[in-house]
Every structure is written in C-alpha cells, then in structure tokens.
C-alpha cells in the first residue's frame, strides 16, 4: 500500500489476525501425566507420606535385629526375618496393609479431584480445556502410579533393609518347601504387583469419593473410612457370607503366592474382584464428574 | 443412567460366586442312572480312584460364639475347627502318598505322607514333626487325630461305618458338587435320642468318590459340612509329596504305633497311646447315639479364655454339672472332671454320666 | 484493501476458515439453582473484535452465565455458541481458543508462578511443548511477573495472583478472552495496566468479554456493554447506543436565552429549561441530531458560547436500571 492511499483514507482496515487453528499435539496425554506426577511428587505432604511408609520396614528390621522374636509371635513372618531378610518385605507389607497404605492412598486419592475443586484449580483445568474424561483418566493413572510407588517404597526398603541386616537366602514357603533366593525374589515381585492391584480398588474408590465434594479432607477421611469399614465388616463373623466380596477381604491373599502350589485361579479371581471394584468406582466417578456442576 | 449401569456392573463384579464359578467348572451334567443305596454303597467302597487333588472347604455352624482368630486360621487345633470355615488343599496318590494343606491367611499347616515318612509343618511356628509310619498302619492312623474327618472322604468313611440297622438309607441323583453330578446318599437315624436329623453324602456319579458330607442337626442349614469346591482326578506331581524340612528348622520326631501294638493289651503301649492322645477316651453306646466319655484332666488347653467361654455357653444342672448345648453336639462336664460328648440329646448324656460314675 | 469513511482504525470483520458470526451468542440461556432462577432467558451477543463490558450487581447471574459459556455449568435450557461452535458440544475444539479468568485466580499454593503456568500449559493438549518456556516467559513478562516467576504462589500478593491469572489466560494467542473481575485486588497502577492490556489485546483482534463492577473502568475500554440484574440481561449493545438510550441533553451556553429556547422549542425538543442567570438553556435531545439543533439556534440569531450534548455516564444508567444501594439482589 502506498502512503498516498493511506492519507486519503480516513480508516485503514487491517486484515484480521490469523489465529492458527489449535491442533492436538502428539504425546499431549503423557505430558499431562508427567505434569500430574510432578504435582504429586513436588508436594511435601506426599513425600512425607512415602517417608512414613519407608519407616515401617526400617523400624521392623531394626527391632528384629535388636531383639530376635520367637517364632509365631507378632505379625506374619516376623520370626523368619532373622533367617532371611526377604521376609522383611512380606512382614512390612502385612503391617502396612491394614492402615498405613490405605492412609496414604486415601490422602492422595481423596485429594485428587476434591483438592483441585477446593482450591479452584479444577475450573482452570477444565477451561484449558482438559475434558472431564481425560482429567479422570490422568487422575486415575496418577493415583495408580502413586499407589504403585507407595507399595514399592515398602517393598524396596524392606528388601534393602532386610538384605543388609539379615542377608537374602533360600526362601522357605508357607508350605515348608524351600526355593532359591531368586525364586523368592520373583515371588516378592508378584506379591507387590498383587498388592498394587488390591489397593488400586481403594484408590479408585477414593477417586469417586473425591468427585463428590470440594472438601479434600472429607474425601480423604471417607476413603480411609471405606477401607476401615470394609475391614470391620470383614471381622464380623455373622456376615461371613459377604466376606468374600468385601473390598479388603483378599488384600492379604498375596500369601497364596508364597505357597508351594500357587492357586493362580484364585489370585486371578481376587484380582478381578479388585479390578471389578475399581471399574465400578471409576464408572461412578466418571458418571459423577462428567455431569458435575463446577461451582468452585 | 450411567449410575444405573455402574450399579449393575457392581452387582456382577462384587458377587464372585454367582456367575463366575458355576460356569468355570462345567463338565456336562449328564443325568445319572438310578441306583439303589446298596449299589451306591458298594460302588463307594470299591471305588478305584487312587489320585485326587482339589480344594476342600469345611464349615462348622454350631452356634457357638466365634473364637478369636478361629476363622481363616491354618491351625489344626480344636479352637479353629469348632467354629467357622476352613479351606484345605488335598492331594492323594494312593494311600501312601497324601498331602493336606490347611490354608490360613499368610499361614499354612501341612501334613505330608510320602511312603513311610509322615511330616507336618506349621508356617506360623515353622515347627516340623517327622514320624515313620509302620508298614501295617491303618489309613486313619496316618493322619493326626485332629484332621480325621476333615476331608469329605474321611467324613464319609466315618458316616458309612456307622450304618447299622438303626439307619434309614436312601438315594437321590440330583446334586452338583464341585461342578460334578452326584448321587446324594441320605442317612437318617430310625431311633430317637440322636440330635442328628440326617447326613447327606454327595457321591460323584462317575467315580463314586464322596464329594460332600453334610450333617444336619435341628437347623435348616447343615451344622457341619465338608465339600470339595474343585476336584481333579489327575495324578498329582511327585514333587507335591516330596517334603524336605527347611534348613535350620528344628524337627521333632514322633513315634506312631503300629496296629498290632495299638491293639495289644501291653501296658507300656497303652501308656504310649495315652501320651499320644492326651484325652484318653471311651465310647458309650453305639451308632447314632454313641457318646464319647473322657477326662479332660489338667489339659493345658483349658486356659482362662476357654473357662470364660464355658461359663457363657453352659447351663448348670441341679447337681452342679455343666451342660453345653449346640444344634448338633451336646456335652456334659461333670463336677468330678469327666466329660461326655455326643450328638445326642442331653437326657442321654445325663443318663450316661449317671451310669458311668467314677 | 478498501478505505472506509468512519474515521477510525478498524479490523476486517470477516475471517477465512471460521464463520463470521459473533464470538459469543446465547439464546434463551436459563439456569436454576433449586427454585431460584440464576440466569433467566439470556440472549447474549458479543460481536467479534468487541470489548464487551459485562455489568451487573453481585449475584446478578454474570458469573453463572460465564461458567455456562465455558462449560463448567450445564444450562437448564437455551443454546450457546462460542466462536461459532456450539457449547458444550465443541468444548474440546473451542476452549483452546479461549482464555479465561473466572472468579479470581486459583493456583497450587506450593508451586511457583512459573510451575503453575507450566502445569496449565502441560494440560493443554494443543500447546506445543517446544515453545512452552518461551510462551510462559512472554505471558509472565506481559503481566509484569518475570521477577516473581520462581516464587511460590503461596507468597504472592493479591495483585500478583491476579496478574498470574491473567498470564494463564495469555499462554496462547486467544480469539476470545473471558475476564471475570480482572482488576480485583490491583492497585490503580495495576488497574491501568490491565486496561492497557485489554486495549492491546483487542487491537490484536482478540474479542474480550470482561465483567466488572468498576463501571468507570469498563466505560474507558468497552466498545459494547451488557447489563444484568436478577438473572436477566436488561440492556446490551454498542456502548454509545446503550448510553444513547438514556436521555441525552443539549446544553447551550448563550446570552440570548430567549432566542435559543424559542429555537429549541420550535425544533421539537422537549423539556426546554432556560436559566437566565447562568445564561444556559437545556433540553432533551430526543431523536434530533445535535448539529441540526445548533444550526436552528444560530439561524435564529442566538449567540452561542458553548454547545454540548451531555449523555449520562454508565454509572447513572446502571443505577437507573438496577436500582440504588448496596442490596445484593439475591
């Protein structure tokens, strides 16, 4: 355009700026997942929770080192730790399963959505936009990863402390048969995987509860309450008909992996029960979140 | 609507027994030929099945208050067996090779018989016992006293031994146990005095192996039940029976008495036998109304909690004896320290106690 | 390129690839909470390129409307088009083109300003991770937070939080910005910066929907306004038109009061008031053009010292529409 034209025109109409149409980037979901994990792991509270979990095997290991317990006393396998440090993994998991692990998972899962809703970040995530299904997917994956991390913390610290204090030797199964240390280690890996799946059912419950409220503390408490309530029902003999279907009933079923003849069908059945719980909780969470009015 | 759908998914997923298991074990439920009781009993006795492996669930509903830790315990002690439900895996390859593993939560108690060797192992104490089985030992002696009657076969053995002229026997072909079609043998007392209403024994149609035994008292559900939840007649691997004590375990050696020794009147043998079975007992009566009489004596098991439980359960008779009543078994504990136990009415117990003074 | 005659710098209203319709359009938008009606049959129209001042007392339904526009709340009835696409059906493709600040900023307390923006950028699946650092840096610089980028959000002042909220809305080039009370907590300097920012963004072609209770501020930047009260959209349109709806008054300063008032009355103006002591004549302008009125007055021989058309300020109009006082309407 020439300056002469400019001067005669009282108005210069500029072309509309072109906004590049937004395109979905490759790997966007995993970028969000990494962001979610950073969010979880940058939080001092969550690190403190993992530290508490790490203390469980440490404390048991040191206590056993100081005073050798008699066989048959205390939590499962306690008496066998002195003979084989690998048992510390199972003792620590047994000790952490009723309370410490549900506590940690309750806090993280209960906080996952209620926490974002409570401090208002949920509305900004949703207007970015993170579609609600995608948000639930990444929150689920985040909580599942943290669950795995929590179980691994107990198991790995147990393995290291047990290995250092007592050594890793040939492994005596519940059935009295003996397998190699390596085989024992493989079983420990399966045990950890089983426990992760079992606890994921609770984590999914926490996610669902977390969609119901903007009060993160209430969601955490309710999630922990869910585990405690299930354990309570499990302890009432009059309800033995429903025991097998309870959320927490098969958590200690990992013992099956420590028998000579592992009932794989039972382990799969229990894992399917846990995954079934998770599927129900997640579909409830989805039903709730996808229709939820965000007023916070 | 998603909530409703999710609820349905919940119902399907949370009821593990419902759809899953019945589909999983189907073996084609073909109709069975009718059989008379005599034919069926003969078939059970002559059954040629040597190899069995499977899972047995035993349930006792005596209406007793739950004992602490009884449920899911792998312990073979009586506290565990009088209440609750227990699961065991069993393997058998002929009479000489057997294994029974009582499954507990994070625990297991094993009894392994491999030829002459009889091993027991308890994971909670890591205690191992070993005994050498005399070559002429009876089948019943090869298992510790506590677990006799635990498996359907053993329970059926006991029940069938008790068949006498006072027993009404009938057969139906209707039940399905562990996914297999079975005959149901019904034994019922003809005489009064027994608390047992009937005993139902489910016998596999194809192999004539007893798969389930149910003992009914007054209630509508069996007071005692033991059943296979899954069963295979394939020969178990030899490694199942090859037990090697874990390194460092302390092995207690027990001695078992041969049939001839046990049957002799030798005093030393009798003492040994008394030592092996602290509750030396005698039977009063026979068949449906038999009563076990024994002296619990200064049994170490009678601790404070047992005493408290006894106080709660028992009613004191006019003469100071204590009577414990359950739907199936009644027990009388006399002031002078004798015990009379049987699946009989309290009147029979009182009569037995009176007739066996001292 | 064509030359217009309107005497201003404007933008071409059409745009290839996208329908030329308004940036925001709602029809019959209604939302109840229980038996209270929060938004009642609202037909909002925000033309492309406009700076739309969204006004209303607390509780008038502005925020509920904005939340429905952005898919946070479901409407009971009515339709929403955002950038020519239906909401919430096209939420995934529309919202990346929309930046929003809703009811104040909200971020993770234990993350720094930078990390909070990084979190939001990572959650935008249309955001290019390769340019993430650059865009975050630019957005922070634009709101003057570069120096505080690594500080934890917990330590931010109210004004800094507000600025971070604006920065989040500016992480990507946006076609539409929805700013709910963007100057809350800002000092006069900050308020001025936000005003300039809005002008700048509008000049770059971004449509801005800005809600505020600071009417003077809106008046300075808005090209269009909408006024809500008790869930209803009472008035909307270009700012000049909306203000013109109010009775404009001609004010003539003249020593020849009689001549002037006579001329005004003959021209058909109503409410003619002559103030001899002040030497001022006023009248309601009505539908008449000011230039015609002045010509009549001068033709009649009145000497004119001053001539003004006074329109009511937004604030007066607002009060006239929504009522006086501090009462929250619901």
Question: How would you summarize this macromolecular structure in one to three sentences?
Answer:
The complex is a heterotrimer of chains A (296), B (358) and C (330). With 358 residues, chain B is an alpha+beta fold. Chain B has 2 domains: 24-238, Lipoprotein localisation LolA/LolB/LppX (outer membrane lipoprotein receptor (LolB), chain A); 278-355.
In percent terms, what proportion of residues of chain B is strand? 25-35%
How many H/I helical runs of chain A?
A: 11
Order of helices and strands of chain B: HHHEHEEEEEHEEEEEEHHEEHEEEEH
Count of alpha and pi helical runs of chain B: 9
The chain pair forming the largest interface, with residue counts per chain, is: A-C, 49 and 60 residues
What structural class results from the helix and strand content of chain B? alpha+beta
Largest beta sheet of chain A, briefly?
2 strands, antiparallel
* Widest β-sheet, arrangement of strands of chain B: 7-8-9-10-11-1-2-3-4-5-6-12
Our estimate of the beta-strand percent of chain A is: under 5%
In the predicted model, the low-confidence regions of chain A spanning at least 5 consecutive residues are 1-10
Average predicted local confidence, pLDDT of chain A = 90
Give me the CATH fold name of the largest domain in chain B: outer membrane lipoprotein receptor (LolB), chain A
The H-and-E topology of chain A, N to C, reads as: HEHHHHHHEEHHHH
| Tally of distinct domains of chain B | 2
Distance between the termini of chain A: 52 Å
Please tell me the total number of domains of chain A: 1
- Taken from the alpha-carbon principal axes, the silhouette of chain B is globular
Unreliable sequence segments of chain B:
1-28, 140-148, 258-279
Radius of gyration of chain B, CA atoms, in whole angstroms: 22 Å
Give Rg of chain A in angstroms.
25 Å
Can you walk through the features of this model?
The complex is a heterotrimer of chains A (296), B (358) and C (330). Chain A is an all-alpha fold and 296 residues long. Chain A has helices at 3-8, 28-41, 44-66, 86-96, 100-118, 121-127, 132-166, 181-212, 216-234, 240-243, 264-291; strands at 11-14, 171-172, 178-179. Chain A has a two-stranded antiparallel ribbon with strand order 2-3. In chain A, strand 2 and strand 3 (178-179) form a beta hairpin. Residues 1-10 of chain A have low confidence and may be disordered. Chain B contains 9 helices and 18 strands. A 12-stranded mixed β-sheet of chain B has the order 7-8-9-10-11-1-2-3-4-5-6-12. A 6-stranded antiparallel β-sheet of chain B has the order 13-14-18-17-16-15. Chain B starts with a helix and ends with a helix. In chain C, strand 12 and strand 13 form a beta hairpin. In chain C, helix 3 crosses helix 4 (132-142), helix 4 (132-142) packs across helix 5 and helix 9 (257-267) packs across helix 10 (290-299). Classes of the chains: A mainly alpha (296), B alpha+beta (358), C alpha/beta (330). Chains in contact: A-B, A-C. At the A-C interface, strand 1, helix 2 and helix 6 of A face strand 1, strand 2, helix 2 and helix 3 of C. Strand 1 of chain A pairs antiparallel with strand 1 (3-4) of chain C, so a sheet runs across the interface.
